[in-house]
Amino acid sequence: MTFEIEVNGRTRTVSVERSKHDGSFRVIIDGTPHVVDAVRVDGGALSFIQLDADQSEPAKAGGQSHRVAITEGASGELTLTHAAGLVRAIVNGRRSRRGGEVAGAAGEQRILAPMPGKVLRILVQPGQDVAARQPLVVVEAMKMENELSSPRAGRVKDVAAVEGQSVEAGRVLIVVE
Q1: Mind listing the domains of the chain with CATH numbers?
Q2: Which residue, 53, 120, 126, 149, has fewest beta-carbon neighbours within 10 Å?
Q3: What distances in angstroms separate CA 37 from CA 4, 17, 18, 63, one per listed residue?
Q4: What does the pLDDT look like over 90-104, one tens digit per residue?
Q5: For residues 97 and 161, is the Cβ–Cβ distance under 8 A?
Q6: If you average pLDDT over residues 116-129, what whole number do you get?
Q7: What helix, strand, coil percent values describe the chain, rounded to 5?
Q8: Distance of alpha carbon 87 from alpha carbon 71, whole angstroms
């Protein structure tokens, strides 16, 4: 299977093939092949082991392990949490851009906590007009500040959290209509 994945504003082509011999995966990212083993752990998390050496950095040997927690937002955007931090990704078919707007983000949008954490700052209030990708709330999780943005232009319908509040993963923080 081949996907186009937008990660932090950069589109990458990713192809994934399962090996018939040992169950590992051949993953090609923008033309660079990798061999990985992957297993699902903790529900939405995956554990990856890179079985080959990283061709871009010959000093790195194979066997590197990576744990990635995946949370899907209401608008189809994926939040990937790993040791280096938080990454937002859009997989082709989930959303596409047309004329600067984000297709598929019509109707009420719920901004969810990507993981357990603490609400540090609420940046909007009910009734406020917001632009696409405008920061709405800042949540601290895993000792990192994560700024959550609006998936589209609209109006804040509800602010369902308060500063200083502890929140669990998937809790609605802001609703944009």
Answers
A1: 2-176 (2.40.50.100)
A2: 126
A3: 21, 11, 10, 10
A4: 776 443 333 333 434
A5: no
A6: 94
A7: 0, 55, 45
A8: 11
Q: Which residue has the higher pLDDT, 114 or 119?
A: 119
Among residues 177, 128, 172, 173, the alpha carbon closest in space to that of 152 is found at 177
C-alpha 47 chain-centroid distance = 16
Question: Which residue type occupies 50?
Answer: Q
Which has the closest alpha carbon to 76: 60, 92, 63? 92
* Global pTM exceeds 0.70: no
Q: Which of 54, 101, 109 is nearest to 76 (CA)?
A: 109
State how far the alpha carbon of 66 is from the alpha carbons of 10, 85, 139, in Å.
21, 12, 23
Work out the end-to-end distance of the chain between its first and last CA atoms, rounded to an integer number of angstroms: 35
Cα 18 to Cα 4: distance, rounded to the nearest angstrom: 18
